[in-house]
Design goal:
single chain, about 160 residues, alpha+beta, seven-stranded antiparallel beta sheet, 3 helices, 7 strands, about 25% helix
Amino acid sequence: MNHYHRQLLLAASPAAVYQAVATQHGLRSWWTQSCDVATTVGDKATFRFGEHHKVMQINSLEPGREVRWHCVEALINVDAFRRKDEWVGTDIVFRLTPQPGGKTLLDFDHIGLTPDFECFGVCERGWNQYLGSLQSLVETGQGAPFIPEVTDCSA
């Protein structure tokens, strides 16, 4: 396996982790506050990070077990990157497995995000940061999502 994979043991129930990765409120609390997330398989979720964005088709929603998205649109607006849409065609999968003591084993895969991608280093660091934010959210109630800059128009 050469795509991005990370496994985390979370001190939270599968139901709590599922809410964090399958709902707009949850995703706004650890990944990006600028997102619109549908809750039906076949619908789309849009995630914005300033001038960058990703649009995911929701392919699986199994409460307490799995969330799976397929990227259908992306813009990673980094001048050095020749392809700014490398995520298109990749899949993001959150698999949740109950563990003793009310914990959850999260197997996270970004299938297709490989070291061959120009954005791999940036995306790997990003996933590491935001999966840490997810862990913080489900364990302490406080994540560290991307917060869009607010422009003051009163001047």
